[in-house]
Amino acid sequence: MSRTRTALALGTAAAGAIALASVTASAAPAPVAGSTTVTPAGHDFKAVLSGKATLKAGSVTVTCTVSVSTGTVPAAPGNTNPAGAVSSPISPPTYSSCTSSMPGVTPTVTTSGAWAVSMQDGSPITATMTVPTGGLVLKTTGLASCTVTTAPTAPANVPGTWANGSPSSLTFTNASVPVKVTGGFGCPTSATASVFNAVYKVSDLTDPAQDITVGP
C-alpha cells in the first residue's frame, strides 16, 4: 500500500474513532440524583421571611419585609425519594410592607395558584420553588403604573438552597425568574427576567419542639 493510501486509511480510522468516542460520550447517562428524606413526615410547616425579599426587574427594585407561606411534609413513605427530590405543595406566599426604588411609586404583590417547593439532599442541599403560570403579579401605582407578571407563559422553577437548623432556612440568592412587564412611562417593559433574593426561616407547626430537616 502506498504512503498516500496508508495515510488516508489511518486518517479515516482516526476520524471513525473520534466519531465513535463522541457518540459514546454523548450517550453517557446523566448522574443519578441521590436519595432525599424530609422529616418529620406529615408535619405542617411555616416559612417566614427573615429580613427582606427583593425582586428586581430592569432598573426597578421592589423590597418587601413581610412574607409567609405554609405547607406540609408528605406523609411516609412519600417523604422519602431514593433517587431524587421530595416535593411539597405550599400556599402562595403572601408579600406585604413593600416599597419601590422608584420615588412616588407604591407596589402591591398578589399571588395565586399551585405553588410547591422541592428539596434534594446533597452538599449543599438544594431547594426549588415552583411558581405557577402567572402565580405572582406585582402592580405599581403613583407616578408609574406598571404590571410585572412572573412565569408569564409557563411555570417557573426558582433555584435556592436549604440549611438544616433550629429553625431551618431556605435561601434564594440572585435567582432568575421569567417576567413580563407592561405599562407606560417609567416601567421596565424590556425586562424579561427578574432577580429574586430572600431568606425564609422554616419551622414545624405540628410540633414546635421539632425541626423540619432534609437528609439522605
> Helix fraction?
10-25%
Q: Helix segment count?
A: 1
Largest pleated sheet:
13 strands, antiparallel
Give the rounded overall mean pLDDT: 88
Would you tell me the structural class of the helices and strands? mainly beta
Rounded to an integer, what's the Rg over CA atoms? 24 Å
Distance between the termini: 62 Å
The count of strands amounts to: 16
Given as residue ranges, the uncertain stretches (5+ residues, pLDDT < 50) are 1-30
Explain what this protein looks like in three dimensions.
The chain has 216 residues and is mainly β. Helices cover 11% and strands 52% of the residues. The protein has one helix and 16 strands. It has one helix spanning 3-26, and strands at 36-39, 44-49, 53-57, 60-72, 80-81, 86-90, 94-100, 105-111, 115-120, 125-131, 136-142, 146-150, 156-163, 168-183, 193-204, 213-215. It is elongated. The termini are far apart. The model is unreliable at 1-30 (pLDDT under 50).
Summary keywords:
216 residues; 3-stranded antiparallel sheet; elongated; disordered N terminus
Give the helix/strand layout.
Layout (H helix, E strand, L loop, with lengths): L2 H24 L9 E4 L4 E6 L3 E5 L2 E13 L7 E2 L4 E5 L3 E7 L4 E7 L3 E6 L4 E7 L4 E7 L3 E5 L5 E8 L4 E16 L9 E12 L8 E3 L1
Antiparallel strand pairs: 1-5, 1-16, 2-4, 2-15, 3-4, 3-15, 4-7, 6-9, 8-11, 9-10, 10-13, 11-12, 12-14, 13-14, 14-15
Brief sketch in words of this structure:
With 216 residues, the chain is mainly β. It has one helix at 3-26; strands at residues 36-39, 44-49, 53-57, 60-72, 80-81, 86-90, 94-100, 105-111, 115-120, 125-131, 136-142, 146-150, 156-163, 168-183, 193-204, 213-215. The termini are far apart.
